[in-house]
Automatic annotation (TrEMBL):
Full protein name: Glutathione S-transferase
Domain of life: Bacteria
Keyword annotations from UniProtKB, A to Z: Transferase
GO MF annotation terms: transferase activity
Segments forming domain GST N-terminal: 2-84
Occurrences of domain GST C-terminal (ranges): 86-219
SUPFAM superfamilies tied to this protein: GST C-terminal domain-like, Thioredoxin-like
The keyword Transferase is assigned to this record: yes
Amino acid sequence: MARYRLHCIGASGNSYKLALYLNCAGLDWEPVGVDFAGGVTRDAVWRANKNAMGEVPVLEVDGQLMSQSGAILIWLAETTGKFAPGADQRYEALRWIMFDNHKFTNNHAMHRFQRSFMPAPVHPAILSFLRARTEASFAIVDKHLADRAFMLGDKPTIVDFSLAGYVYYPKQETGFDIAKDFPAIDAWRERLAALPGWKPPYELMPVGSDLRLTMLPPA
């Protein structure tokens, strides 16, 4: 059994943040599938044994269970030294990880889920609201990346893995053409994709419920 066991599903961008980090860091890890579509994360026993917050990802390591991707990325950087921000970058790293969790990833993830994985079409006003919020947060990151290779400078850190959670899912699924509308983010995506160990989400986490099959409405 691998030392790091990531309880996840392929469609979870928050899980992908950790899977991508673990793979690019060359750590001994394996994905463990979760039947998200079957409701396991709402099950009282699962919550008692895995994560009281009822979410994936959950990282299992040395008998310890951890949740919340941002907190886990910080812990991994501190315990492995891989992709760790410099001591003088700690505040900046925390600032961007919080921004990512609150806005960049959050808005994008909600728009994608409402657009592609609901059993029935949602009201257009909901998608319009979420799209506007996503575009606003993307514009901030696009401007930030216009004159730097990675979020904190010339080397990738956990901040880049945090923001990478949902930017590699297909545009048919997310509804966003990043290459066309956010060129600096797209160039940054390409730099991350050149790292040894990079793989797209569904390839890196071929486990758990496949929301593409179980939750998309019929054509």
